[in-house]
Specification:
By secondary structure, this protein is an alpha+beta fold. It contains twelve helices and five strands. A hairpin with a 2-residue loop joins strand 2 and strand 3 (about 335-340). The longest helix is centred in the middle third of the chain and has 60 residues, at about 195-255. It is rod-shaped, with a radius of gyration of 44 Å. It starts with a helix and ends with a strand. The mean pLDDT is about 80.
Length: about 425
């Protein structure tokens, strides 16, 4: 047999298949660049998705193969191979579902991926083995040709769909070649060495398509990752711009030393506060001055003066936050301004006494340097329907001067 002409053809066919497969592996290593890290993971995700789609559409191929085997009495092995393929379908579907669930939950899916790779290789072998008993030569019938075309197309689809995952691609190439080897030898015995001329180019073209498919998929994965990266960077830049705009707006509306509102922010926010008060609401403007503040700077230094202003800002901020419908701001220099809703219970007196008490407590706690006593003079004016905010501020300013003239550390209401 080995010394005969047919035996030599068989030896050439086997050695040619080995050389072709070796060239496949060489091309895989040099050409099939699957990338690393996230790109490779993206390709694995696409591979699992393609297998899921392929398993569900394989029903069409199985139906055609079943028709060919039922109405062709010469096929004995094909129905059994077809039964094995049908048996593998639910197994592969279960593996794919488990892999997708692990991918979604961030679990380790590599063990199931190896099972899927093995299943893809076995499936490629079974589809190649489906034509083991197809007669080549004069006995070839139309149903045999249809089955051959179906197997050829199915093998191409299986290899291309597996090309996104290197182990699966190698498994399908090995499985399809091993499954097709007996029919290949039978065909070689009928056609002679001419088949060897066509087989390597067909394998090369298929491998070339797989290479182009992987390159396109890798490029798409890279573009998706870059797009996602740019989207994240744009989102971060957007957030940074929004935060910067918020900081600039806050800085534009607040005093840097006391952290209270400045005059512009106070005038802007008072209008809505007065409008929300409704008809019959009573508001009062308080113009507060730190007594003898120039003396604080001269006797204790400007650093202590800044500490006094910062502490005063905290006092006004706490006083505002503990009441309702209050707005405080630094009016300029050592002057502060506040507007507050005055209820019928006690009037404005208790509110001002509370503010005075806060400065007293600061002295008692030793916040100020030893020998420093900070007091306030306050001018008060009502804001009514007949008195605008600007008029109320002027009236409060006159009341403030009256409080200073009366000895400071007191408050005075505008007439």
């Amino acid at each position: 047999m080995i010394g005969s002409k047919e035996g030599r053809h068989i030896i050439r066919a086997i050695s040619s298949s080995v050389r072709i497969f070796s060239s496949f592996l060489s091309v895989f290593d040099r050409k099939m660049n699957y990338g690393r890290g996230l790109i490779k993971k993206k390709l694995v995700h696409q591979f699992v998705g393609k297998q899921n789609l392929l398993v569900r559409t394989r029903v069409i191929g199985i139906s055609v193969a079943a028709y060919c085997s039922i109405y062709n009495e010469n096929l004995f092995v094909t129905p059994f191979i077809l039964a094995f393929i049908i048996l593998f379908l639910p197994i592969n579907i279960g593996i794919i579902r488990n892999i997708k669930k692990l991918m979604a939950n961030g679990g380790n899916y590599h063990g199931d991926l190896n099972y899927l790779t093995l299943g893809v290789g076995v499936n490629a072998f079974l589809w190649g083995a489906m034509i083991w008993d197809v007669p080549f030569g004069a006995d070839l019938r139309q149903l045999d040709v249809a089955l051959l075309l179906l197997v050829a197309v199915s093998q191409c689809i299986i290899i291309l769909s597996a090309s996104l995952h290197r182990p699966a691609l190698i498994a399908t190439v090995i499985g399809s070649n091993l499954g097709s080897l007996p029919p290949f030898l039978n065909c070689l015995a009928e056609t002679g060495p001419m088949y060897l001329v066509f087989y390597p180019p067909m394998q090369f073209v298929l491998l070339r398509f797989a290479y182009l498919y992987v390159r396109q998929a890798r490029t798409e994965a890279l573009l998706q990752l870059r797009t996602a990266s740019l989207t994240r960077r744009l989102a971060l830049s957007n957030k940074a711009l929004i935060d910067a705009a918020d900081r600039l707006k806050w800085q534009a509306d607040h005093d840097a030393l006391t952290l209270l509102r400045n005059r512009r922010a106070f005038e802007r926010e008072v209008g809505p506060l007065l409008a929300d008060g409704g008809e019959g609401a009573c508001f009062a403007v308080l113009l507060v001055d730190l007594d003898h503040f120039k003396r604080v700077n001269d006797d204790f230094g400007h650093d202590v003066g800044d500490q006094v202003l910062r502490a005063s800002g905290r006092i006004f901020d706490e006083w505002e936050s503990e009441g309702r419908k209050r707005i405080t701001a630094r009016w300029g220099g050592e002057e502060f301004i506040a507007i507050v809703e005055v209820s019928g219970e006690g009037g404005i007196g208790p509110l001002i006494d509370d503010l005075h008490a806060r400065f007293t407590r600061m002295v008692a706690r030793g916040v100020w340097p030893e020998g420093l006593r900070v007091t306030t003079s306050i001018g008060v004016s009502a804001v009514t329907a007949d008195v605008t905010l600007a008029d109320a501020v002027r009236n409060a300013d006159r009341a403030l001067y009256e409080a200073k003239a009366a000895g400071r550390d007191r408050w005075c209401r505008a007439a």
